[in-house]
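Lab notebook page, bench 4
Experiment: in silico fold of construct C2
Operator: M.H.
Input chain length: 112 residues
Purpose: comparison with the prior construct
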Amino acid sequence: MDKAQAQAICQMGESRHQYNQGVLSMLDKRRLADDHEAVCRTIAMLVEDRDRLIPDSASPLDPLSAEAEAIQKQIDEAVTRQAEAWAPIQAIIDEARAELDTADPLGLGQAI
């Protein structure tokens, strides 16, 4: 990987879905970005569903209703899947960062 690719990879982040898709497409690994984004969307949808079941007057200390608790369980499972989907992307970022650090340990902009 060249320096520009490594730098682009290092800019990926868990909430930068479109950027991640572009960078991972460059590496023929777009599926990783798509899988991660799909889980993130699922979590957002489940959180909205759960929150609709919580009355506005509820205290954060109030127990969830059985229905909201069931959705919370789905959220917890999806968060685990989200971490699993991010792990291979993070490994790519870590590899790129290591290459940049090895080639330019002081960050002086030297060529790889």
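Observations: The chain has a mean pLDDT of 93. Residues 66-103 form the longest helix (38 residues).
Next step: discuss at group meeting.
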